[in-house]
Amino acid sequence: MKKVQISCFQHIPCNPCKFACPHGAIRMEHLTDLPEVDLDKCIGCGLCIPVCPGQACAVLDDDFTEKEAALSFPYEYLPVPVKGQKVQAVNNEGEIICEAQIEKVVTAPAFDHTNVVTISFDKRYAGNITGIRKI
Description:
By secondary structure, the chain is mainly beta. The strands form two sheets. A seven-stranded antiparallel β-sheet has the order 1-4-5-8-7-6-9, with no helix packed on it. The chain has a two-stranded antiparallel ribbon with strand order 2-3. The chain has one domain (2-132). It contains one helix and nine strands. It has one helix at 16-20; strands spanning 2-6, 26-27, 36-37, 57-61, 68-75, 86-90, 96-106, 115-122, 131-132. The two termini are 28 Å apart. The radius of gyration is 14 Å and the shape is globular. The model has no long low-confidence stretch (mean pLDDT 94).
C-alpha cells in the first residue's frame, strides 16, 4: 500500500503540500502548523513530493513486491541516479541502513528541477529509510 510520509519538523509558514494533494489527505489548520496526513484519504500519488521546498515528503510502498518495499522521494543532487543503479539507503540521520536499487527517476518541468527518485529495498527496512546517500 502506498502512503505519504512527511518528515516536517519546522513550524514555518509553508503549505504547498496541502494544496498539492488532490484528495485533501494533508491537513494544516494554520499556516505554521506541521502537516498531518489522513491515511484513509491518501492514495500515495506523490504529488506532494516535488512541491515541498523542505524536501519533507516521500511515499512508501510497503507492498512493492513480495519481498521488497519502495520509497519515492525528492532528489536534487548531481549526478542524478539511473534506473538499475545500486545505492546506499539511509535514515534521517544519514546512517546507512541497507543497499537499495534505483527503480525510477522522474524529472518533469512541472517539478522545478526536483527529481523524484524511487528505490526498492528489503521490506524489513520499510519505515526506516528516508533517502539515499549522495552519489
